[in-house]
Every structure is written in C-alpha cells, then in structure tokens.
Amino acid sequence: MIFLELGQRPEEPGPPISGSASYEPDVATRLGKDAARIVARYPQARSALLPLLHLVQSEDGCLTPAGIAFCANQLGLTDAEVAAVATFYSMYRRTPTGDYLVGVCTNTLCAVMGGDEILDALQDHLGVHAGQTTDDGRVTLEHIECNAACDYAPVVMVNWEFFDNQTPVSARELVDELRAGRSVTPTRGAPLCTFRETARTLAGLSDPGAVADSVATGEATLAGLRVARANGMSAPDPDTPNDAATQPDPQLTEAADSTRDEPAPAPEAAAPPPVNGSAP
Q: What share of the chain is helix, strand, coil (3-state, %, to 5)?
C-alpha cells in the first residue's frame, strides 16, 4: 500500500515579508529607470504590478518592505494593495533565495512516480528542509505544486526551467553541479541562469539574445496528438452551431448504455513492485 500525503507541507509556512524598509538613493534611481520602461508598456500603470514585483525580486532575491514600497510608489498604490497581490502568487519569494531555486513537484502524478522520494533524497543530501537554503547560498530547495508537465513526471524545476523524468540519483547530481558552479542544461526551454537573472527576465528586461528563440515540443507531449491524427479525430469546427457540435455520437452513446449497469472490474491480482524493496 502506498500512502500519499497531499497539500502544503507543515515545514513550509508563509513568513511575513521582512528586510530593509527602503532602498539607498542610487538603487532607487536605477530601479526607477527600469520601472519606467516596464510601466510604459501598459495603458494603465497598475497593470505593471506583476513585472515590477519581479523587478524588485531581481534586486533583493525575494520580496522586502523596500520592494513593496517601491512598487506602490511607482503605481500610486498602497503598500497593503501591493502586498496583497505579492503574497497571492507563489513565484514571489518571502525569504532570501539562493542562486538556484530547486523545486520538486510532489503533486499527484509526480508523487506517484517518485517525487516525494526525490524531495526526501535532496533534503538529506543538501542538509536542508524544503523552504531552506544551503549554507553556501547556492541552492534553495522547495516543494512545488503541479507545473503542467505531467507527461514528464517526476519533474524538478530550477529557476522554473524544466528537468524532466528525474530520479533521486539524477536530482542529487543536478544540485551538485549547480553548487559546483558548473553549467547545466534544462531538458527544454531557455538556458539556465541565476534566480535574480530569471526574475529580471520575468520583469521583461532581459537580453533577448539570452532567451531561447524556440522551444521544441517533446515526444511525450505529442503522443496524444499523433493518436488523434491516426484515428481521424479533430476538434469541432468553430463555425458549427453549438447545438450541432454538442450532439452525442450515437455509437458512443450505445456503447455507454450497454455497460452502464455492469459492475466495476475487480482489482488486478498483480500489484506493482515495492519501492526500494520496502514492504507494500
């Protein structure tokens, strides 16, 4: 029997935002120039709040009272309004973050495929719990919710770039490479950079040449599309009237009716093998 504990882990509370209350004048001036570029992209200034939060996170490595106040002043909002938005989204960090934010997905499918085992292995290997940073400041470990990469489970993300089909061994090797300062390449997506550089990219201020021009779609993602094409399946014609598009297929209806009252199949006799030789 496998027991899966879902939901937020108790060792990952959401701490209050803390740190410096204001920026030094030279820092505020530099950030102000970046903020002006960001705000100018939006018809209403307050629409720039999310990228501005990434901007101050690129400065501090997390949200601070100084960053909250800076965003509020730039947009004519109160600190409370900015903090309410900032604390809603998990990509805005409330504690200092290392160069590499290593997130292990432990949501349903990744958990079934070994995500919890990977997280436990990294906590033991790095000597930190989820939500903490290694002593050298290189790696912050966290447990994350689904990142829509279930076809590559279990998934580890580093600064929100994908490392697919991981194992405890490969995940340990990955963090060792990061801590040693060696280059690692995500399975797909943009080249890996530091957490603060990533935050600047999310603010819309990165060098366009540093971001991948295109991202190849993986084989696992395309499998369903190929099956659909092989069987002549397609989405409804958008020009088809709604009532016609939603009419049930007579063959599917007949098949469903014929099995409606049948009992559910019994469990299979062969159980999956235990993990690491543990008792089922």
A: 45, 5, 50
